Amino acid sequence: MRNRVIAGLLVLIFCLGKTSFVSYAEEMDETIASMQQEEAQTQETISNLEKQTKETKEAISALQGQRTQTQNALSNLQSQSSELQKTINGYSNKLDDLNEEISEAEKAMAEVSSEIVRLDNELQEARQKEKERHDLLMLRMKNTYESGGSKGIVRIIIESGSMQEFLTKFEYFSAILRYDTKVITEYKALQDLIEQKVEVVEEKEAQLDEYQNVLDAKHNELADLTDEVKGKLSSTNSSISSEKNKLADYDNQLADLDKKMKALEAQTAEAQAKLAQQIANRLALTKEDTSGAYAASASELEWLAATIQAEAGGESYTGKLAVGSVIMNRVKSSAFPNTIVGVITQNMQFASYRSGKVELIIANGPNSTCIQAAQEVLDGARVGDYLFFMTQYYADYYGISEYTMIGNHAFFYRWITNKKEPEQTSTESQESEAPQEAQPEPSSEETPQENYSEETPSENQEPSEENNENQENPEPQENAEPQDSSSQEDGNSEGGSE
Questions:
Q1: What are the pLDDT tens digits along the chain (498 aa)?
Q2: Which of 3, 43, 60, 460 is most open to solvent, judged by the fewest CB atoms within 10 Å of its CB?
Q3: How many other C-beta atoms are found inside a 10 Å radius of the C-beta of residue 309?
Q4: How many CB atoms within 10 Å of residue 382?
Q5: CA-CA distance, 471 to 146, in Å (whole number)?
Q6: How many CB atoms lie within 10 A of CB 162?
């Protein structure tokens, strides 16, 4: 009877334990499913933010293109304005020269006109004197040849007392007549000379008048051209002002987009940190089996070997296997892409990929040692179940509590920290507590960040406590190589230089 009671109790305990175990397993499955759903939502948020970031980058690129075109147009307009101003200055100089020529021509015209007036006065005076002399001669001739009258010259001569007196009087009157005739001839000759001078001066006046008309025409033409060019200059300067306003508008838009980019980057960093925390929390509930071989194509082998070379080219063979193990553990983990290329090219992960080094190594062909290490990892060899790695300096900087040093790199499975840092609530606070510039950069292997990326901490961004404590590190950096000893805190890195 006693044995039956004991047996019954055992059966009851077994049934209750089994029921409790089943209930716990179901609860665990529900918890994990809920956590995965939250991760998916966060990942969707990240995707949306990345989409907005891409659109913003495209908008910035388009605006920069338009700004460049406007800047080129502005430069062309400024050059055009400068050339137009030079043309105006040239016209202005020519106008000054023409004005000077016109002034000289006007002065010459005034002198010629004055000369014409003077010659005309002389001519009138000569004509008047010639007329007076002619009238006097006519009067004398009339008196000389007039018969009768007590005062007639002929009578006076005839009434001479002697021949000698007659001859004397006749010679006297003949001399007077010859003198008058000579003077009349001289005055006529003077008139002819003056008239010739007048003709010459009038011809010169006509030439000057024609020259002045030509100068006036040139002046008017240049004035019209100047006005035309000034109009073009005014229009060009107006266009310059418009283009400058466009540039200012583009600058304002670019500044707004830059602020938007920074806000999106901050939001993306926050979402990535949140995703890292969610993944860390889920992985803390259960241990995934990431062991086993992987049937890789020749291309995948090349990608894996190239990344091992980019991240651990100067490390020991074990260090190369460790980097390859992290990549394959991620491929096997539910928290990361399930292909080699997907893991290596995952957004904000391997810096060695982003910098182009991995693809450069692929183009030249990975070395045989890294190909061998990659093949062993694909065949199932693992150096731990690590999902993350970084330099020891940054492992200590972030306060990673559990890591294993292999060569110059710290490898770990979960991002669990023992370092208390001031909680960051804004980008401003992150900037104010950033690591100093003098601190060494993290090596190119995975450098965790609060934004779930492998990039090195920037000067103005220090990881916050809420984002790093108990978090899984983001995926390993894709393209950055391990830095040489000069950039390592412990100074013993064998990492290949970039």
A1: 667 767 767 766 766 665 666 676 788 778 878 887 887 888 789 888 878 988 998 999 998 999 899 999 989 999 989 998 989 899 889 889 878 888 888 888 788 888 888 878 887 888 787 778 778 777 766 666 554 444 556 666 666 667 777 778 677 777 877 887 888 888 788 888 888 888 888 888 788 788 878 888 988 988 898 998 889 889 999 999 999 998 899 899 999 999 998 998 888 877 876 776 677 677 667 777 888 999 999 999 999 999 999 999 999 999 999 999 999 999 998 888 999 999 999 887 787 898 899 999 999 999 999 999 999 999 999 999 998 888 888 888 888 888 999 988 999 887 777 755 444 444 443 333 333 333 333 433 444 433 333 333 333 333 333 333 333 344 444 333 333 333 333 333 333 333
A2: 3
A3: 29
A4: 19
A5: 156
A6: 8
Structure tokens at 468: 């790093």
- How far apart CA 15 and CA 17 sit, in angstroms, is 5
Question: Residue 322 is encoded by which pair of tokens?
Answer: 């460790």
Neighbouring-strand partners of residue 411: 389, 404
Cross-strand partners of 404 = 411
* Separation of CA 175 from chain center: 106
* Structure tokens, 310: 């980019």
Q: Which amino acid is at 304?
A: L
